[in-house]
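# step 3/5: fold
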Amino acid sequence: MATNLFRVDGQVALVTGASRGLGAAAAIALADAGADVVLHASRSRAEATDAAIRSRAGVRTHCLEADLSDRDATDALVAGAIAAMGRVDILVNNAGTIRRAAAESFSDDDWDAVIEVNLTSLFRLSRAIGAHMLERGSGRIINVASLLSFQGGIRVPAYAAAKGGVSQLTKALANEWAGRGVNVNAIAPGYMRTDNTKALIEDPVRSRQILERIPAGRWGEPQDLGGAVVFLASPASAYVHGHVLVVDGGWMGR
């Protein structure tokens, strides 16, 4: 049946930044499709996501904490996920941070913090887990990019640079790994209601400007990303490699 193409029963997913927002929505969607899920999140902040997954019959969940600005902690996250579940079949690189300031006064510390979490840790996680996937000849890596993979944004130079890098890294890894059984793709969310967009939502001028450009006529909700995540994690996307799937309410078509 065609619906079986969108099932990931028995597979193990690691979702970074899974305590809330886009990460939580991705983790719950994968659990609904049959995956066991390792949540990268502090246990105290992931209670709702963990409980939502545990309410699904037949799937397991496990929570691991890691500061992705700390490279030792990133290594420990990979080891912990494999130790807890035996393997990782699906990696969703969702965790990210943002710092806002005018480019002429943007500090080195803010630049380094954003690039380390949003781009370097993503590469290091993909490299480590990708090596295990290549040994098995199968796996799915889904990176969370951004509309700023295509556009420059305002007052977020490090974030724009990192997300542009995520898009290009997605293609680079796909070029090397597609023929070896590992699908690497990305999702570029539009303007979603998350902690990262709180400052924009609360700015009446910017919020109005953004909403006026979205053909769908509303801000996106984290749940709007669930279907795209499941598609890229499932057999339905078997021949999709190096693609950046935009989920933006029509923003890029405007």
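# step 4/5: annotate
Residues 2-247 form a domain with the Rossmann fold fold (CATH 3.40.50.720).
# step 5/5: archive (pending)
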